[in-house]
# Entry
Amino acid sequence: MADKFRLMMDSSAKSKDEIEQELRRMIELKKHPEDAQERSHEQSDPAAREEVTAAVRRAVQDKISAIVRDAIENSRDNGQSYGEKIPPRPQRDNIDYATGKSVSAPLEPDELAYAPSVHENDDDGGDIRAKITEMRGIAHTFYTGFMMKKNAEETLIKQGEFMQFVTDDFSWNCFCNIERPIYGAMSTDQLRTYFTWRTRARNGVFSKVDKPYIILYCYELLNKIGVMSSTEAYDRLSAVWEGCRGFCPALDTVMPRWLKDFRAFNDVGDSAACPAESVLDSRPPDDLDIMQRRYSGKLDYMMSVSSYNLRGSIFYSDDTGPLLDGALEAVLTALDVHFEKYGATMFELICGKLRKDFSWTPFSGAYVDLKRMDGFHALKISPTEQYSTKRGEPCLEIFEPSPYRSFAGWILKSVESVLRKRTGFRYGITPNLTPVLEDFANRDKLCRAAEDPAFPELAMTAAAEWCDRHGIYPPKKQPKKRRQYNFDEAEAPAGNFGSAAPVKPAPVEIDVSKLAKIREESDETTRRLIVEEADTVTAEELSERISDIMDDDFEEQTAGFAENYSESAEEARQSTADGCFAGLPDGWREFAQSLTEDDIQLLKALRESEKSAEALCRSRGVMPETEYDRINGCAMEFIGDVLIENGGLIEDYIGDLSPILE
# Structure
């Protein structure tokens, strides 16, 4: 090419430099004309000069282009290449890597991904293989603005409709482990295995096969491929679940939600719900009973949702269980009537309510085109699950457990408190309403119900009325014996609570005046025996004084003291009777009487703060831990539990201590 270009330059064409020199010469002639009369028309007209320049440039370009074209054509004829550093790559032939032979037709993407079928050379199944090859060419493509993508859902539907009437009788059962199967991802043998299994499944025969084949058939039914109506598709999905769940447990995790979604997006008529829909339901049947206001036998359920551990209480046993269950039914009924007046239900307070499931997407995990559905409609699956429309969009509402565990604990503790008193149980408890009020805060309906003056005593009143109806009354008081303070040695009550006749205590008469006289005489004797030591007392004087004391009559010596002592003893007994905390339950009353004034002051300081109690103990010169252990020892003796733990009062007993400290 370079030689021909030089030949062109030497013969007729001008180079760029020559053209530039010619133009400069013409400009110089214009500036310094030799003879104005001899100048031509072209030299005096600027437009003419521009036309000449453009014509020369075009002529040069055309000549160069012609030379280049000739060089390319000659190189093709001679097999030579000019101007290329890398020789051209020879075209690759399509090779079948299974046989090593060249194939003329280009391979499809699916054929490149999977090895060719081992049955390609068989005469049997030639039509089905041709159908599969034709099916592979069907694909739906859409433009996202950035790149071209294939839509798996629409591709699956188009290929499924193309192959919906295909039947096969393939003798092999090829293994398949695709998580979300589609036609294009399967080899020819896998597709033939699937079509063979589908042919039998449509006839009601569900043979054991790998999970992807079952899931692909479910995709077809969810898109209503190969069926005449939505009802038929739903019935076949139910049959697939019943026939294949034995060897494909994965259906129990996906089929319940798919069936529910299918019913919500399609009109399945009067078809009965498939049992698969209730496989994942974990709510206990007690929820439905409480929703329908049937509160009998709900003690175990209430203990499971309560913050109070009733099963760990010393009062709970096989004998008291039926009493607690019966009283609980009466309390729940009374509370239901109370909260109904304020627009709330016991189901909402104890069990929970329906909430929108923000993680739900229709037919999650499946390729489904919602445009093929009949249309979404509200559907109530159960009282704890339903489909609805929120802001114009389909949504699923599922059950959310109630957060009011303290409310359930308050109910159980109120029932137990009443039954402890009615059955004569030694230790009493007091329910604490404060956690319930804290849970009800910022909830208008519940706050109004809790602010009702009758609400704090409502549960205990209902339990007491139930006890009255069933003849459970507190037993009469009996004389105390020392061994009754030991819970392990106390005799168990005979028979049912409230049914045994009270034992009449044996009459005991005490002459207080005689006791006072004896005490008075003893004090006088002690006083007389204590003699001040004298500095100048001789032995004779000491012997004389002893003789005088022994000769005196004892009654004369104590004549003026018996009456005064009897009056003081009577006043002491009266003051003790007035301050014996008669209004407290059994156990708490004895505990209060065993406390000293210093103990009560320490408990008051401990109720305020731990630092106040420690400061009080330091002012008395005693250790706080020693005082705490002594008070806890009294509490264990009378009420069966400690009151002070980790340097503070136990919260459950603050209400019981309030009457004592006040």
Q: What stands out?
A: The mean pLDDT is 78. The chain has five domains: 2-78, 96-226, 286-469, 513-525+547-578, 580-662. Residues 580-662 form one domain.
